[in-house]
Amino acid sequence: IASDPVDHRLAYKARKSRLRRFGERLLVRTIAVFVYPLLWSLPLPVLRRIATGMATVARLFSPARTRLADENLRGVYGDSLSDQEIKSIRDGSALNAFKTMAELLKLRWLSEDEVRRITSVEGRGNLDAALAEGKGVCVVTAHFGNWELAGAALAVEGYPVNVVARDADDPIMREFTNGARRSKGINVFGRRNARQ
User: CA–CA separation, 124 vs 172, rounded Å?
Assistant: First the structure.
């Protein structure tokens, strides 16, 4: 019997102490104040290597999240995957999340030509055909690959892009992420605003 992954996430969030939440927020703000201003000068390949290291460090210093990820993956896959396969998916997902965040934070300093160079749009004819009907298009994506660059790739090609995103809990991080999106012409709606 597979367990519900959402229940584990809520239980983990409830177990976090105020001190831990304070520490996490302090870490985010420290990174924001001291690291973020340096991002514009670092090439994207260097940022990706840094993100790889950060994913490893995060895994080592957050055993509770590692266990939670393992439990969630077991809840989805049951016994159909080996422990090594579960570990590979977990570690790959964490690495992807860190690389996506590094690329998102660098996004505001990438030119339109740089965005085009590091992305490709497949099936553009389908999008154009759907838009030609005059009704608009709703593109739904999972957190697979770099969904942030996907939106930017469409925006720099002249497509109007509106995204519904969960706002970051920290207001500084929220402005960094949404500011990066807006820098490429993407309109951002928080989930609460999208319901109105």
Answer: 35
